[in-house]
Design goal:
Layout lengths: L1 H31 L12 H9 L4 H5 L8 H14 L4 H25 L4 H15 L5 H4 L5 H18 L4 H16 L7 H12 L10 H18 L14 H4 L1 H13 L8 H24 L4 H28 L13 H25 L5 H43 L18 H14 L26 E8 L4 E8 L10 E9 L2 E8 L5 E7 L7 E10 L4 E12 L7 E3 L6
Antiparallel strand pairs: 1-2, 2-5, 3-4, 3-6, 6-7, 7-8
Length: about 575
């Protein structure tokens, strides 16, 4: 009796835990999302530049970006950018909203396809959401351009849900063809929507027979061919990407890469070999479940309930294959890239629900009434253990990603003063001159917050609280050779162990006036800056160090300063006597 009362509370407990899981991702986005374009986002500066000039065209939005013809994500980027002055954190929030919609679609699908008890359904939904809202996808949560990664699976799950509704057959066809088109022109794997949705439409729902008639079949085939044709118009492989025939030359590595992508969402141990094995086991389990369904294909109820999950798993498998073909040349270890987990986690989700359906069918067939509960009792703690044990590592990776981007933003703000060697921006490591040009375009439009630094006088950007807040110290300066010095110290954000976003060195040129001349935006609190005598005047100088906050564009002086004497055409000398502020 007490157990039955407890089971009634499981749906509420599950909903609460799912809310917490999703809420943590929202917190991470708000806390660690950085308002600065990152990597591929710099390619979209031209959208806003041309939009401001009134020259933005359909062809520009439809053009290939690497292998992606992401027309619909481009519309979202432009719309959100126009509304928010391109605050990319809103793109991250849009991704979170998409994840919530995917979660909702899967929740609805469960109630259409699962015959388990109510509390059992909610346990499965909870376990699925542990993967949907997993921090291991940190690149996609904190990188707004990854809308293109979420759009296809959102379209796929929405189509699957529509298949089970009472919507008329014609309208199901129109809606699903429209969503398949959106999926196609969002990401290259979006093409898969055409291949995996029609089986669901023709085998599930109240209008399944409609999709066996020649008109809807013909229209779907026509739509598929048209989508593929338009997608590959003027298609060309990016020059800096590896050959797509690499897997022919290295078939063993291809298998490892494929299984690595599949196993990454449930990495139990952070080892490539182990993750590959996990991916292999997951693949075998899914194929065994698919074989069971195939052997019982005459059971229409079983097939109806299983087909959406089979197709969802196939979506992840086919996407993993596409990624492997396109990226194998980067090396097997690249399969563990965080952003790819958003593609393959749905194999885990599909396997979870397929396992439930198959066990339900098998236990009823063999009259094993307790088999389902026993399996669920094993599965629940196992998956929770995996997610809990890997959560801290994923959070550390997320924080490191944030640190890298915020330090990149710090370097970006000084892009008009420091060369690429002096200012490794970390957010677009190639085409430095083009990056500087695009950064100045955004700055002129007011799309960089704070704006680019426009003065060499560090007092112009010094915070009013500078000297009152302890950001660290300038500890020493040593001479390395006839022309080179190394300054070092410690700089941390107040109250944390996190390094300052950047450290600047300056020299005094008159009373209360300092010129910054070099920058360090490494990811360590212990900073070192090497500089050359030719970057300084030939005179006696007082050097100071400053912490820089990339979110405010303000500098804070560090404790300690050092005298440096650079006589013209002679060796340098240095006073290591610190003059405390």
């Amino acid at each position: 009796m007490h157990i039955e009362k407890f089971l009634k509370y499981i749906p509420a407990i599950a909903i609460s835990l799912i809310t917490v899981s999703a809420g943590m991702i929202l917190y991470f986005i708000l806390r660690y999302g950085v308002d600065v374009p990152y990597m591929d986002q710099w390619e979209y500066v031209r959208f806003f530049d041309h939009m401001a000039k009134g020259t933005l065209s359909f062809d520009e939005l439809f053009a290939l970006q690497c292998e992606y013809r992401q027309f619909f994500p481009n519309l979202i980027f432009v719309s959100l950018g126009w509304l928010t002055n391109w605050n990319v954190r809103y793109e991250m929030l849009f991704i979170f909203l998409m994840a919530c919609l995917i979660s909702y679609n899967i929740y609805r699908l469960v109630f259409f396809t699962e015959t388990a008890n109510l509390w059992q359904k909610w346990i499965l939904i909870f376990l699925a959401n542990l993967f949907i809202f997993a921090p291991i996808q940190y690149e996609n949560w904190l990188f707004g351009v990854q809308i293109e990664y979420f759009m296809p699976i959102l379209c796929v799950t929405t189509c699957m849900l529509i298949a089970f509704t009472n919507t008329g057959g014609f309208w199901k066809l129109i809606i699903c063809m429209s969503l398949a088109t959106i999926s196609t022109f969002s990401s290259v794997n979006g093409l898969l929507c055409w291949f995996i949705i029609f089986p669901v439409l023709s085998m599930s729902g109240t209008r399944a027979d409609y999709f066996k008639e020649w008109v809807p079949v013909t229209l779907w085939i026509f739509g598929t061919v048209a989508a593929i044709t338009f997608y590959f118009i003027d298609y060309s492989q990016p020059e800096n990407f590896p050959s797509t025939y690499e897997f022919f030359d290295h078939p063993i590595d291809a298998v490892k890469y494929f299984f690595g992508i599949l196993g990454n969402p449930i990495r139990i141990i952070h080892s490539l070999d182990h993750i590959i094995k996990v991916g292999g086991v997951l693949f075998i389990i899914f194929m065994a479940l698919a074989l069971y369904i195939l052997l019982h294909y005459k059971n229409k109820s079983l097939l109806r309930n299983a087909i959406p999950w089979l197709m969802m798993g196939l979506y992840s498998l086919m996407t993993a294959g596409m990624v492997m073909v396109g990226r194998l040349g980067f090396g097997v270890y690249q399969s563990l890239t965080s952003r790819y987990t958003s593609y393959t986690l749905y194999l885990v989700v599909a396997t979870l629900f397929l396992t439930s359906i198959v066990i339900q069918h098998y236990s009823q067939k063999k009259h094993l009434s307790n088999l389902y509960s026993v399996c669920l009792a094993f599965l629940l703690p196992f998956i929770v253990y995996i997610k809990v044990s890997t959560y801290p590592v994923a959070i550390d990776d997320l924080k490191n990603f944030h640190t890298n981007v915020i330090h990149g933003k710090a370097g970006l703000l000084f892009i008009n003063y420091f060369s690429h060697e002096k200012c490794p921006v970390k957010i677009y490591p190639i085409h430095f001159d083009e990056l500087r040009k695009r950064a100045n375009i955004l700055d002129g439009m007011g799309y960089l917050r704070p704006g680019l630094i426009k003065t060499e006088n560090i007092q112009d950007i010094e915070d009013k609280e500078s000297g009152k807040i302890d950001y660290g110290s300038f500890d020493s300066i040593i001479q390395l050779n006839d022309s080179t010095f190394k300054a070092s110290g410690i700089s941390r954000k107040p109250g944390t162990n996190l390094p300052a976003d950047a450290v600047l060195l300056s020299y005094d040129y008159e009373q209360n006036k300092s010129i910054f001349f070099t920058l360090n935006n490494a990811n360590e609190p212990h900073w070192n800056i090497t500089f050359n005598k030719f970057s300084l005047p030939d005179t006696s100088l007082l050097l100071r160090a400053w912490a820089f906050d990339a979110n405010t564009g303000k500098a804070f002086i560090l404790k300690g300063s050092h005298n440096l004497f650079i006589p013209e055409n002679t060796l340098m000398s240095v006073s290591t006597i610190s003059q405390l502020q």
